[in-house]
TrEMBL record:
Molecular-function GO term, any one: metal ion binding
Protein name: Fe2OG dioxygenase domain-containing protein
UniProt-listed PANTHER family: 2-OXOGLUTARATE (2OG) AND FE(II)-DEPENDENT OXYGENASE SUPERFAMILY PROTEIN-RELATED
Organism: Paspalum notatum var. saurae
Domain Fe2OG dioxygenase: 205-305
Length: 359
């Protein structure tokens, strides 16, 4: 974790996104899944939703979730608590970060950081909190142990502190993540093992995380908030305030802006899911560009497997491709170690591809 002194913050030169004259166009048709309709009990609606989820994961690696059931007042409270935390004086934010538990693995960056993303020189117009979160024994709604979230967003905050609001939010978003993962399994034709993905996120040692990002108003348009990257985990579930900025890379390599929607969640397929599905689901490249005069606040839950978990393409999916296995087996710990050695924009999966994947 790197925390900069106030003077240093202003001195860092920040990259602008390379673009032509025009910003990327909005994503024409954002794939959308209404979870309430999908899980209301009608088997036909459910299997149609599962197929739509699989299609979105294959084509974009990305979709929007409506009808998610996470209460609007909870979303408003967590957004307000995050904004209050980032409005604290720099010194208080740094002090709060010192309460965060020691890094779980060498090179990891739990805690608070400003403008520096990772340890290899990536910069962005962003400050963030990165927290390790663990699941209680098996239940999606079990109380959440946060690896050291700051106790309070402000000195005058009521006893219901930032940590508790985040805890409640994580419980809700983990439940949502599991419902989405079950639909992914069903959409892949793995309905016989509906917990094939959820068991990884619900494991007591699951390496899941929450990142709370704050992008202050941009001093000039087109500033890189968070550079292009894929998320390493199985799946990421994102929610932001109404400030735009998220962009995804389309299969043809062009970029598209995702219209913000504070009432919905957005799901990214991560690298680990691309491996488990033998490349059928696409780990989506995405970035955040800051142009807006209003600050953007986003929260991303990253569903990760336990460090010891051996990841490899699921046998049922390999069989369907005539036994062609695109990735070799590796542990999540091994993958994370590799991620920490690389820059944000690097393709990390290429080190784990088999010879048949590239032939
Ligand atoms: O802040 C956002 O909207 C996305 C950030 C992101 O991609 C990440 O934290 O991995
Ligand atoms: Fe990301």
């Amino acid at each position: 974790m790197v925390v900069l002194a106030k003077g240093e913050l202003e001195q860092i030169a920040l990259p602008s996104v390379q673009r032509g004259v025009a910003p990327p166009p909005p994503l024409a048709a954002v794939p959308e899944i209404n979870l309430a309709a999908a899980t209301a009990g009608d088997a036909e609606a459910r299997s149609a939703a599962a197929r739509a989820v699989a299609r979105a994961c294959e084509e974009h690696g990305f979709f929007k979730v409506t009808g998610h059931g996470v209460p609007a007042p909870l979303l408003a409270r967590v957004e307000a608590a995050a904004a209050a935390f980032f409005a604290l004086p720099q010194r208080d934010k740094e002090r709060a970060a010192a309460t965060v538990a020691p890094p779980a693995a060498a090179g990891s960056s739990f805690g608070y950081a400003s403008k520096r993303i990772g340890a290899h020189g990536d910069l962005g117009w962003v400050e963030y909190l990165l927290l390790g979160v663990t699941a209680g024994a098996g239940a999606a709604t079990a109380p959440v142990a946060l690896a050291g979230a700051p106790m309070s967003a402000s000195a005058d905050a009521p006893p219901c502190c930032f940590r508790e609001v985040l805890s409640e939010y994580i419980g809700a978003v983990r439940g949502l993540t599991c419902r989405v993962l079950e639909l992914m399994a069903e959409g892949l034709g793995l309905g016989a093992t509906p917990d094939v993905f959820t068991r990884l996120v619900l494991d007591g040692e699951s390496d899941s995380m929450l990142r709370v990002n704050h992008y202050p108003p941009a001093p000039r348009p087109g500033l890189t908030g968070f550079g292009a990257h894929t998320d390493p985990q199985i799946v990421s579930v994102l929610r932001s305030n109404a400030a735009a900025g998220l962009e995804i890379s389309l299969p043809d390599g062009t970029w598209a802006a995702v219209p913000s929607d504070r009432d919905s969640f957005f799901v990214n397929v991560g690298d680990a899911m691309q491996v488990l599905t033998n490349g059928r689901f696409r780990s989506v490249r995405h970035r955040v560009t800051v142009s807006s005069a209003r600050p953007r606040v986003s929260l991303i839950f990253f569903g990760g497997p336990p460090p010891r978990e051996r990841l490899a393409p699921l046998p049922g999916l390999v069989d369907r491709e005539g036994g062609r296995r695109r990735y070799r087996e590796f542990t999540w710990k091994e993958y994370k170690t590799s991620v920490y050695r690389t820059k944000l924009a690097d393709n990390r999966l290429c080190y784990f591809e088999t010879a048949t994947a590239t032939s």
